[in-house]
Fold Endonuclease III.
Amino acid sequence: MLAIMNKQDLLTKSIKVLDKKFPPAADPVARPVLEEVLYAVVREGTTTEQANAVFAKMKGTFFDWNEVRVSTVPEIADAIAGVPDASRKAQRINEILHYVFEMYYSFELTDLDKKGLKQAGKQLGRFTGMTDFGVAWVIQRALGGHAIPLDEPTIRALRRLGIIEGEGEVEDLEAVRTSLEHYIPKSSGPTFTDRFSTLAVTICQEKPKCPDCPLRPDCPTGQEYGKKVAPEPKPKPKSR
């Protein structure tokens, strides 16, 4: 079990290593709050690069957000094809747009950034179709707060690295996020989120590609993998 200080040191080192391994392909995009809410749906469980491409495709497919709202779930799913669980994400996008329109009679959420972060988070959490990842993403990217979005691939990578303990579904996701927000400075939050997502989706998959992982020297799972595949020592030649 890693000590508290060791976890912080390991995260700091890992972020630096991953930032070098996976440099950003483009500058971050500034989006209105509602767009960030919808982008978070697409982004969960995949990489920034893939989410950017799919989100741009969806925006180009429909005239505006009201057209998305009145479209069928299969039509939305076709527009975001290419991300994991596209059908369920399409359902969530539809639910969020219906909720926002029925609550505000518009597609503007400009009042959220005028509230305190805690109140804004509670309000976002009440949106139909919203997840914990989505709330944390919007706080981090649109509202200027310190929050660490956690999706299943990222949790898997952090668990293998020894940052998150235990097996199975995380029972108290808020407690895990709070710990990570303590270890990771606010300025490093977006970098952590993007780089660990890329690691989790491309290398630390369900069947991990440990030989390709830049964190393998510090990762218990990677070290265990090395023991399993280590070649057997060659027998010493018999002396004559």
About this structure: The chain has two domains: 4-25+148-222, 33-141.
